[in-house]
Amino acid sequence: MQVNQLHPWPATVAEAESIQDRLRAQVDLTGGPTAFALVAGLDVHYHGDDELTAAVVVLDGGTLAPVERVVAHGRAAFPYVPGLFAFRELPALVTALERLTVTPDLLVCDGYGLAHPRGFGLACHLGVLTGLPSVGVGKTPFVGTHEPPGQERGAWTPIVHEGATVGRALRTQRGVKPVYVSQGHRISLDVATEQVLRLAARYRLPEPIRHADHLARHPT
DNA sequence: GCGACAG
DNA sequence: ATCTTGTCGC
């Protein structure tokens, strides 16, 4: 698939932050499709110093059967700074997406979207670059506060940051730690939550991310 | 001001 | 993210 060119690469924290502030204006949070024929999971595995492998696995949105798998090897493109995490993985993830022969209808990203210090996490960034609907799924809390959701599958509570709801803590399986869902691009919070719950059919994390995680760790 | 902080 | 054993539960 085609992905828009990454803007001049930031050399400093201030430059990276200003790119986020500029691209944030392009995020569409008003909604979009509510059904997705092809769903992609994205993840990155780190080895050694700055080496990494990005993996994308596209699943049939109905059966959740894998349709295509691609990887891209590279190096971390930025130091790790909370809030600028996306700049580490973006080049390798974009390379992997460009190697897909099919175009997904939804990107399920490992990390946050709107629930971010400047409202522009990895999921938003990938959504804007591709133009595709995207959702962020975090494994640990980041910004904002929330009450613990009920123990049953599907229970959720809002994540509130600076007076606004920016995501949801969602219990995807009974008795597991919640995952943190936030909008990336072209998706409502309701649809994002519904999709993450549906995709996390058997385990805590959504199937697309589990497949991508496995592929990034065991490339073939 | 200080600490904490997605992966 | 990664470095790592044992242990509990399905």
TrEMBL record:
It catalyses: Endonucleolytic cleavage at apurinic or apyrimidinic sites to products with a 5'-phosphate. Its EC number is 3.1.21.7. Its cofactor is Mg(2+). The record marks Y80 as: Interaction with target DNA. The keyword Magnesium applies. One of its GO terms (molecular function) is endonuclease activity. Mg(2+) binds at D43, D110. It is found in: Cytoplasm. The keyword Magnesium applies. Its main location: cytoplasm. Coiled coil: none annotated. Keywords: Cytoplasm, DNA damage, DNA repair, Endonuclease, Hydrolase, Magnesium, Metal-binding, Nuclease. Pfam families: Endonuclease_5. It is an enzyme of class 3 (hydrolase). DNA repair enzyme involved in the repair of deaminated bases. Selectively cleaves double-stranded DNA at the second phosphodiester bond 3' to a deoxyinosine leaving behind the intact lesion on the nicked DNA. HAMAP family: Endonuclease_5 (MF_00801). Belongs to the endonuclease V family. This is Endonuclease V. It comes from Nonomuraea antimicrobica. The gene is nfi.
